[in-house]
Design a protein that fits this description.
alpha+beta
Length: 134
């Protein structure tokens, strides 16, 4: 898909930047002059690691994140305090951003049909967040 995406990038030079590589091996933020909106369908087996890296980078490093997760992970990210799903991932996501589930996706829309459902989560930058997480 890279050649097709490169064509899209050339057509929309100011609005689209295609970066091809292992997101766990390099700092994606170094590829942008201004905070980007990052959109991705993440590999479910490393989605929380990718999210943790993006959230920990600094809120000034990205404008908005629009990411697809396994439904159970999306529910943990957006869980409210005192609920069974609330935990470390909820705290980090909600400390660094304002996450919300925007689209719930049935497993039946994929082929082959996976056993899990999915959800698109939008992370809006939290304007009051000031300190980098270590």
């Amino acid at each position: 898909m890279i050649p097709t995406l490169r064509k899209l990038e050339r057509l929309n030079q100011q609005n689209v930047k295609v970066i091809w590589g292992d997101i766990l091996e390099f700092n994606i933020m170094q590829h942008f002059l201004q905070p980007p909106t990052i959109i991705g369908n993440l590999p479910y087996n490393i989605s929380t690691k990718i999210l943790t890296n993006l959230l920990s980078s600094s809120p000034q490093a990205w404008n908005q994140l629009i990411l697809m997760f396994q439904m159970e992970v999306a529910e943990r990210i957006t869980a409210k305090p005192n609920s069974k799903k609330f935990g470390r991932l909820s705290v980090l996501a909600q400390y660094c951003s304002v996450p919300s589930i925007k689209i719930k996706i049935s497993n039946k829309v994929f082929f082959p049909t996976p056993k899990v459902k999915s959800a698109v989560v939008v992370f809006n930058k939290r304007l009051t967040y000031k300190n980098k997480i270590n």
